User: Which sequence fits this backbone?
């Protein structure tokens, strides 16, 4: 397994003034034992990468287009993110699947574009509350995994984030048994499709991860880190989550 990973997704939040949060993180985590990534809005990628300089915290985008360039007003390509200083890009977040009608096929094409540009794709999956209550969570998420991951996925270029939609921004978190079941199933499917290398594909949990529940979540088998929304916006919330992951390694 590669290093464990904590990724912060700022979503549509953050202005220049918030770069001070990144400076604080950089001071606190000069030599982390886990990988740390922050994904700000596209407007801040370049400045965040610049202000981090040679520090070990990485910057990521929140989405990319499947094409490298062209007539796609409002979109940005994986190459552009790379040039701006990003090393990672989130693709297929449930908010994009809902707001922008992104399908598994589109998500897979975006992940392929990320790989081609030399970015690590953080591919998001997750069921709705209705699907969970109907007992379909495992089937839905397995289907998303099969259809959203490109053939060339490896432990080096791909991270999978399981984010149950009903846990995002709600303060509700699945039980550790539910997380263990999902992550165990995802790991088995990854190894079945990609072989032994897939044991190293990092599986993140996302959805209401906070300083007070992080340790419990990180103790679950096959949880290799977290994709954190709201609690990644302030270094005073994000740092204890990073500490919780560090104490597992
Ligand atoms: O969607 C998420 C991260 O991508 C999770 O968001 P919250 O941590 O705010 O629930």
Assistant:
């Amino acid at each position: 397994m590669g290093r464990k990973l904590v990724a912060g997704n700022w979503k549509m939040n953050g202005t220049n003034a918030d770069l001070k949060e990144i400076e604080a993180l950089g001071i606190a985590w000069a030599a982390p034992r886990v990988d740390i990534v922050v994904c700000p809005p596209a407007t801040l990628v370049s400045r965040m990468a610049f202000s981090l300089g040679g520090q070990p915290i990485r910057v990521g985008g929140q989405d990319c287009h499947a094409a490298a360039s062209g007539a796609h007003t409002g979109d940005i390509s994986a190459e552009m993110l790379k040039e701006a200083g990003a090393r990672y890009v989130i693709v297929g977040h449930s908010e994009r699947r809902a707001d922008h009608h992104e399908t598994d096929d589109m998500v897979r094409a975006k992940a392929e574009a990320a790989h081609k540009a030399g970015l690590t794709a953080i591919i998001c999956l997750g069921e709705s509350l209705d699907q969970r209550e109907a007992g379909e969570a495992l089937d839905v998420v397995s289907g998303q995994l099969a259809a959203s991951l490109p053939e060339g996925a490896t432990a080096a270029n791909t991270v999978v984030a399981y984010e149950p939609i009903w846990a995002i921004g709600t303060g509700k978190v699945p039980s550790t048994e539910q997380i263990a079941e999902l992550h165990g199933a995802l790991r088995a499917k990854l190894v079945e499709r990609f072989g032994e290398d897939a044991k190293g594909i990092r599986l993140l949990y996302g959805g209401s991860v906070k300083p007070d529940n992080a340790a419990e979540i990180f103790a679950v088998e096959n949880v290799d880190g977290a994709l954190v929304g709201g609690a990644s916006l302030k270094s005073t919330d994000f740092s204890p989550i990073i500490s919780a992951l560090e104490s597992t390694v």
User: Anything to note?
Assistant: The pocket of 1,3-dihydroxyacetonephosphate is lined by residues 9, 93, 163, 168-169, 206-209, 227-231 (CB under 6 Å). The chain has a mean pLDDT of 97.
